[in-house]
Amino acid sequence: MSMQSRNDIRNLAIIAHVDHGKTTLVDAMLWQSGVFRENQHVVERVMDSIDLEREKGITIMAKNTSVLYGEVQINIIDTPGHADFGGEVERTLKMVDGVMLLVDASEGPLPQTRFVLRKALEANLPPIVVINKIDRSDARPQEVLDEIYDLFIDLDATEDQLDFPVLYSNAKSGTCRSSVDGEDQSLVPLFEQILTTVPAPQFDEEAPLQLLITNLDYDDYVGRLAVGRVFNGRIAEKDQVALCRRDGTLEQVQITGVYGFEGLRRIELKEARAGDIVVVSGVAAINIGETLTSIDDPRPLPLVQVDEPTISVVMSVNDSPLSGRDGKHLTSSKLKERLLKESLINVSIEVEETESPDAFKVSGRGELQLAILIEMMRREEFELCVGRPAVITRQVNGVEKEPMEQLVIDCPEAYIGVVTEKMGIRKGQMTKMVNHGSGRVRIEFRVPSRGLLGFRTEFLIDTRGTGIMTHILDGYEEWLGDIPRRPTGALVSDRSGKANSYAIENLQPRGELFVSPGDEVYEGMMVGENSRPQDLDVNITKEKKLTNIRSSTSDVLIHLIPPRKMSLEQCLEFIGDDEMLEATPKILRLRKRVLAAARRK
User: Fold this and answer.
1) Spatial separation of the C-alpha atoms in residues 282 and 257, rounded to whole Å
2) Secondary structure (DSSP) of 162-192
């Protein structure tokens, strides 16, 4: 075996916790490498190209770009920072030879920092540590660096891995420095460090083609696109190659196009060599984790393995009386087709059929990941009903074990008591508490995954919107017993019609309402939250009886409290076991699983 290396390429992934500045840093690298013209208008966070990413301010899908520094092409992969999208990070690390770990100069390492770094160290990828946002007023770069060293040691890093280079940056202004007190420079030191630390791709010159597929895309003109890295050999347009499927079978396919990355554009290539990250077209039925290899000497690469999902929901066709008014895709066949397509593109999503032909069990990493999937389907004009999220347990030697989470909470000191009390109710155990002396405190808990279902909204209310919480899977433990659910019942409409302001005013003392005057309702639809534990059937369509007696004031003054409008994630947190979320392209409604009041009693 004669191993060669390509010194004209570096493959790098940028990994970090959510909102630590990965996409902003990629922006600065693109600008300073000359990808954009000086007078070119470019939106901020240009890599976040999906509408949902721009709205939520987070990266959901890993994306490729490349910059040219001197004679070297640096392929950069921007990865998601949220724990729910960890599957994107796991398969991305298969394509690269090194990682850039970004850490906030104030917040320090957080749960997703630990997760992505553990995966990088397991893959023996050399890290470059960049402490970002050093311009923050509460920045503490030296303490954060000590915390990063502690994290590396805690993850059993080798001596070589502990000898990582450190840079300090302000991604927003596009500057970095080699030491805390050094002078701000452009990103040249960062580019130089990438060339020094990230090894050039190595390959066996005598080995046949091996191209591992790690992402899928679609183009209206050429159809299904497969993104992957060439580990050995060469691939060109019109080549006849073998597709090694996940089940071990081989299929002969023809490549109709090979594309590379130049900045944010895809460019046609005559040929791709070992070390290149490329896009190939022509293979319609290709899946993530499969290998394109030589027909004469097929050598499949190991499949992409990702951690198992921890939370599942049941998605079913919308069978409410108002179904079909907003969406186009209503049938179970359309729903099944869309969910199976998602499971092919997103390796951390699993889809199973249930006893009902109209319902499917969808498993993922967390509530946010499943909520993003539902929101994307709504925008594609699907209508569906979604049940309450449930944790996925394991049976180990006849003992039921449930997923546990490492939860990190950052909140003002005044709310330590209420947060600790709520965590105690949800079977959480405090493992660490740190007070940096800035008026805020960081508390770490180990808590069952089901204890966090519905906790985020409650937590934001308790901390007046000032608290920050992040969590990540932290193993499995024996079932810890029952955890109290929502302490309140629901106000449920007992008939169909339109909500009336007169009825709403009379129902306001009963609890908090979700609907406005004129909104259409139906029997079994939840129109509010009861202030007591029981469900209450109410007539929200009731109109005032007309008489001959009039009052100059009482007919005019109807005092209505604005209804509570909940987001998709809040709706999923709110519903109970006997309730469902009806999601259509235009509206979200909460409803009972059994609509008829007589059958619920």
Assistant:
1) 7
2) HS--EEEEETTTTEEESSTTS--B-SHHHHH
Residue 385 is predicted with a pLDDT of 93
Closest CA to 10 of 42, 33, 44, 27: 33
- Name residue 222's amino acid: V
For residue 301, which of 203, 198, 199, 218 has the smallest C-alpha distance? 203
Strand boundaries in 84-206, DSSP class E: 98-104, 127-132, 166-170, 175-177, 202-204
Question: Residue 464: phi, psi to the nearest 5?
Answer: 55, 35
Number of CB atoms found within 10 A of residue 386's CB: 25
pLDDT tens-digit series, residues 197-244:
988 888 888 888 888 888 877 777 777 788 888 888 888 888 898 888
Q: How far apart are CA 100 and CA 275, in angstroms?
A: 18
Q: Is 171 exposed, middle or buried (0-12, 13-18, 19+ CB in 10 A)?
A: buried
User: If 0-12 CB within 10 Å is exposed, 13-18 middle and 19+ buried, where does residue 291 land?
Assistant: buried
Q: Is 495 exposed, middle or buried (0-12, 13-18, 19+ CB in 10 A)?
A: middle
The pTM score is: 0.77
Q: What is the pLDDT of residues 443-495, one digit of tens each?
A: 899 999 888 887 887 888 888 888 888 888 888 888 888 888 778 889 999 99
